[in-house]
C-alpha cells in the first residue's frame, strides 16, 4: 500500500487523522516496512525528561528495508548515480543489487576489523558512493555512524571523535572539489594525534596522492574488502537503538551530537521523502547537499533509498567548471526532482540566466530548497528560470534534530507562496508561542516555533549529555520541543520561517554557533576578547561579523585579521571564517558585564539609526567608536 498523498483534500484528511489518531496514523504508515518483530506500542513519550520512544519493542534493520526490500523487485534499477567532480571523468551507476553486495561486503570488512553493534564509526569522506555505502554498512551491523563534513578541520574532527569515543575512521586519501584537490587523510592523521580511541582507519583511494599509512592502524579500502563475502546478515536492532550521531552547532561553544534511532527515523524519512517530492518509480532525484549534513543523511541516502528511488550523488561544486554545472547534470541524467539550498540559487543567480537557458531542463518536475529562508527574488528566479514556471517549489523547513522535513508544501498539491514553507506534514503539530510560552492561537500571529507532539524522526538525546538535550530543546517551554526559530503564521494559516532567535547563525545554510566562532577566535594569542554576530549577506544569507579586542603589538591590523581568520579555519574549518573582522578597543557591556549583542548586530547590519538606549551601558562611549570603524 502506498502512503502517497495525491490531492489537497487528501492532505487535509491525512493531517486531521494524524492529529486526532496519531497511533493509528503512524501504525498504518509503519505497516509498509519490514519489521523483524512488530511493535508493542506506537509511541510513548514525555517532553519533561525528555523520553521519546516510537515503535516500542519492535525489531528491525533499516538496511533490509533498502536492500532486501528492493533486491528482487528492482535489483537492476539504479540506486545511486554518481557524478564526479570533473565533468569528463567516468561516472558510476550502482544498482540496488550492486548496492546490496557492496554494503554487505564493506560491512564484513568492518566486522573483520572488530567493529560490532553499538561501536561508533566516524565517516570523514568526500561525496563518493562509498560514503553512502559506509553509512549503510554501519547500519547493517548495528554500528553507529557519525559523518563529519570533510571540510571540518583536524581539531573539529578530533573533538567529535573524542566526544563519541569512536573506534574507527573511514576516510579517503584526498578530495576533489572544483579546481582544488584537498588532502583528507592528512587531516585525519593530525586529528588522531589528539585522540586515543581509534583502532583502525580505512582509506578510500580517490585522488591518488601520496599519503602516509600507519602500519597496523591504516588500511586501504580495496584491501579491506578483498575476499569479503557479499552476504552479511543484518543485525537485529531495537527500534530505539541508535542509528547515527550527527554533530551540529548550538548556542554554546561545543557542537552537540544529535542522536537518531533506527525505527522512527526510517519511517519518517521515507514517508516525508515520498510525499514532499512526490517521487514516482522511474524518476531520477537529485539532492545537491553533502552527506556530512542532515540533508545528505535523510534525503540523499536514507529517505530516497528506502523509497526505492534513484538518487544522484554529486562530488563537485555548482560553479565548476562553470556556472552551468548543475544544469548540465540535470540534463545528463534527466533529473526529475532537484533539491538544493537558497545560497546555491543566489550564487547562480549572479551569473544571469544564460547558463540556465542554454541547457535542456525539461525533465524537471519538482524543485526544492532547504537550509535557510529563501528570499522572494531567489524563489522567483528558481521558479521561473530553472522550473520554467511549471515546477512547484517546495520550501522545506526542518533541522538536524527533526530528522526529516517538518513544514513544507507537498509538490504540486499544496498551493505555494514565495518564501513560505506553507503547512506542516501529517503528524507534525507546530505551535507558536510568545516569550512567556503562551500559545498564540489562530492566524496572523508571530512568535517562536515549537512542537507540541512528538514525531517518529525527532532526536532522542544529545550523545553523552542528556541534560543538554533537555535544556536546549525541552526546558525553554513546558511540554514543548523548541526549535530555536522565529515564525509567522499568516492569514491563510501558512508558515513563514523568520530565522533563528538564538545565538545561532545560518551561513550558506550551515549552522554556526556564535560562541563556537568566538572560542576559535579567542585561541589566537593576541586576542583578548571577541563577539560574533550574523549580518545579512547577499549570497550566504547570513555572514559572520566578528568584533575583536586585541593586542596589536608588533603587528599591523591587516596581518592580525588574516591570522585570526586562519585560526578559525584551523580550529573549525573554512566554513566558519568570519566575513568581516573589526578590531575594536572595547565591546558594549551592561553593568553586569554582559555584551550587548543587539547593538553589535545593528551595527553589523549597517542600521545605526536606532540603537536604542545606550546610556545604561558600562561604556557607552564605545558605541561611537565601533560605529565609526564598521566594515
Ligand atoms: O533556522 C532554520 C534553518 O536551518 C536551521 C536548521 O539547520 P540544520 O540543523 O543545519 O539543518 C539544515 C537542513 C535541514 C533551522 O533551525 N532552516 C532550515 N530549513 C529552512 C530554514 N529556514 C527557513 N526556511 C527553511 N526552509
TrEMBL record:
Keywords per UniProt: Acetylation, ATP-binding, Ligase, Nucleotide-binding
Q: Which residues form the AMP-binding enzyme C-terminal domain?
A: 516-594
Which residue numbers delimit the AMP-dependent synthetase/ligase domain? 73-454
InterPro entries for the chain: Ac_CoA_lig (IPR011904), ACAS_N (IPR032387), AMP-bd_C (IPR025110), AMP-bd_C_sf (IPR045851), AMP-binding_CS (IPR020845), AMP-dep_synth/lig_dom (IPR000873), ANL_N_sf (IPR042099)
**Residue ranges occupied by any Acetyl-coenzyme A synthetase N-terminal domain in the UniProt entry:** 13-65
Q: Can you tell which superkingdom this protein's organism belongs to?
A: Bacteria
Q: Which GO terms describe its biological process?
A: acetyl-CoA biosynthetic process from acetate
Residue ranges annotated as transmembrane are none
Q: What is its EC number?
A: 6.2.1.1
One matching Pfam family, short form? ACAS_N
Molecular functions per Gene Ontology: acetate-CoA ligase activity; AMP binding; ATP binding
| CDD domains registered for this protein in UniProt | ACS (cd05966)
Give the EC class as a word: ligase
Q: NCBIfam families, alphabetically?
A: Ac_CoA_lig_AcsA (TIGR02188), PRK00174.1 (NF001208)
What's this protein's family per the entry?
Belongs to the ATP-dependent AMP-binding enzyme family.
Name of the featured protein = Acetate--CoA ligase
Per the UniProt entry, what species is this protein from, by scientific name?
Answer: Marivirga tractuosa (strain ATCC 23168 / DSM 4126 / NBRC 15989 / NCIMB 1408 / VKM B-1430 / H-43) (Microscilla tractuosa)
Upper taxonomic classification of the species? Bacteria, Pseudomonadati, Bacteroidota, Cytophagia, Cytophagales
Amino acid at each position: 500500500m502506498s502512503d502517497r498523498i495525491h490531492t489537497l483534500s487528501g492532505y487535509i484528511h491525512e493531517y486531521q487523522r494524524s492529529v486526532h489518531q496519531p497511533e493509528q496514523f503512524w501504525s498504518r504508515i509503519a505497516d509498509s516496512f519490514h519489521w523483524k518483530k512488530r511493535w508493542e506500542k506506537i509511541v510513548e513519550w514525555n517532553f519533561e525528561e525528555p523520553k521519546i520512544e516510537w515503535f516500542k519493542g519492535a525489531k528491525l534493520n533499516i538496511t533490509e528495508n533498502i536492500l532486501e526490500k528492493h533486491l528482487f523487485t528492482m535489483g537492476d534499477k539504479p540506486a545511486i548515480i554518481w557524478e564526479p567532480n570533473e565533468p569528463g571523468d567516468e561516472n558510476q551507476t550502482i544498482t540496488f543489487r550492486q548496492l546490496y553486495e557492496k554494503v554487505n561486503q564493506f560491512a564484513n570488512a568492518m566486522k573483520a576489523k572488530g567493529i560490532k553493534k553499538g561501536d561508533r564509526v566516524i565517516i570523514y569522506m568526500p561525496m563518493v558512493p562509498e560514503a553512502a555505502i559506509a553509512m549503510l554498512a554501519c547500519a547493517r551491523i548495528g554500528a553507529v555512524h557519525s559523518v563529519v563534513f570533510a571540510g571540518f578541520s583536524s581539531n573539529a574532527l578530533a573533538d567529535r571523535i573524542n566526544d563519541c569515543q569512536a573506534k574507527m575512521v573511514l576516510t579517503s586519501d584526498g578530495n576533489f572539489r572544483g579546481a582544488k584537490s584537498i588532502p583528507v587523510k592528512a587531516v585525519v592523521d593530525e586529528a588522531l594525534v589528539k585522540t586515543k580511541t581509534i583502532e583502525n582507519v580505512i582509506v578510500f583511494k580517490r585522488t591518488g596522492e601520496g599519503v602516509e599509512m600507519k602500519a597496523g592502524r591504516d588500511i586501504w579500502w580495496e584491501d579491506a574488502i578483498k575476499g569479503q563475502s557479499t552476504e552479511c546478515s543484518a543485525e537485529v536492532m531495537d527500534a530505539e537503538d541508535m542509528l547515527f550521531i550527527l554533530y551540529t552547532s548550538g548556542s554554546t561553544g561545543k557542537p552537540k551530537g544529535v542522536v537518531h534511532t533506527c525505527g522512527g527515523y526510517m519511517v519518517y524519512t521515507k514517508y516525508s521523502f515520498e510525499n514532499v517530492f512526490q517521487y514516482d518509480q522511474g524518476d531520477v532525484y537529485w539532492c545537491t547537499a553533502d552527506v556530512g549534513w542532515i540533508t545528505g543523511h535523510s534525503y540523499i541516502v536514507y529517505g530516497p533509498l528506502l523509497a526505492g528511488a534513484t538518487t544522484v550523488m554529486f562530488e563537485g561544486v555548482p560553479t565548476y567548471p562553470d556556472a552551468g554545472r548543475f544544469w548540465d547534470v540535470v540534463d545528463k541524467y534527466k533529473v526529475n526532482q532537484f533539491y538544493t539550498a537558497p545560497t546555491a540559487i543566489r550564487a547562480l543567480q549572479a551569473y544571469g540566466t544564460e547558463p540556465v537557458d542554454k541547457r535542456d531542463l525539461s525533465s524537471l518536475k519538482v524543485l526544492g530548497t532547504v537550509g535557510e529562508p529563501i528570499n522572494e527574488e531567489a524563489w522567483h528566479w528558481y521558479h521561473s528560470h530553472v522550473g520554467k514556471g511549471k515546477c512547484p517549489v517546495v520550501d522545506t523547513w526542518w533541522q538536524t534534530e527533526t530528522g526529516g522535513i517538518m513544514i513544507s508544501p507537498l509538490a504540486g498539491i499544496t498551493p505555494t507562496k514565495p518564501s513560505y514553507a506553507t503547512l506542516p506534514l501529517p503528524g507534525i503539530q507546530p505551535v507558536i508561542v510568545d516569550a512567556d510560552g503562551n500559545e498564540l492561537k489562530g492566524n496572523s500571529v508571530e512568535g517562536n516555533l515549537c512542537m507540541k507532539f512528538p514525531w517518529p524522526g525527532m532526536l532522542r538525546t544529545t550523545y553523552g549529555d542528556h541534560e543538554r538535550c533537555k535544556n536546549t530543546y525541552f526546558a525553554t517551554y513546558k511540554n514543548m520541543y523548541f526549535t530555536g526559530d522565529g515564525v509567522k503564521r499568516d492569514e491563510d494559516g501558512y508558515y513563514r520561517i523568520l530565522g533563528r532567535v538564538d545565538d545561532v547563525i545560518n551561513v550558506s545554510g550551515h549552522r554556526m554557533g556564535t560562541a563556537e566562532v568566538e572560542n576559535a577566535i579567542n585561541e589566537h594569542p593576541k586576542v583578548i576578547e571577541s563577539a560574533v554576530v550574523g549580518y545579512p549577506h547577499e549570497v550566504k544569507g547570513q555572514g559572520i561579523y566578528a568584533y575583536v579586542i586585541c593586542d596589536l603589538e608588533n603587528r599591523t591590523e591587516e596581518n592580525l585579521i588574516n591570522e585570526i581568520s586562519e585560526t578559525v579555519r584551523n580550529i573549525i574549518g573554512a566554513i566558519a571564517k568570519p566575513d568581516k573582522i573589526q578590531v575594536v578597543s572595547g565591546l558594549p557591556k551592561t553593568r553586569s558585564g554582559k555584551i550587548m549583542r543587539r547593538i553589535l548586530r545593528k551595527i553589523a547590519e549597517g542600521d545605526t539609526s536606532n540603537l536604542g538606549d545606550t546610556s545604561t551601558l558600562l561604556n557607552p562611549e564605545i558605541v561611537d567608536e565601533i560605529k565609526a570603524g564598521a566594515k
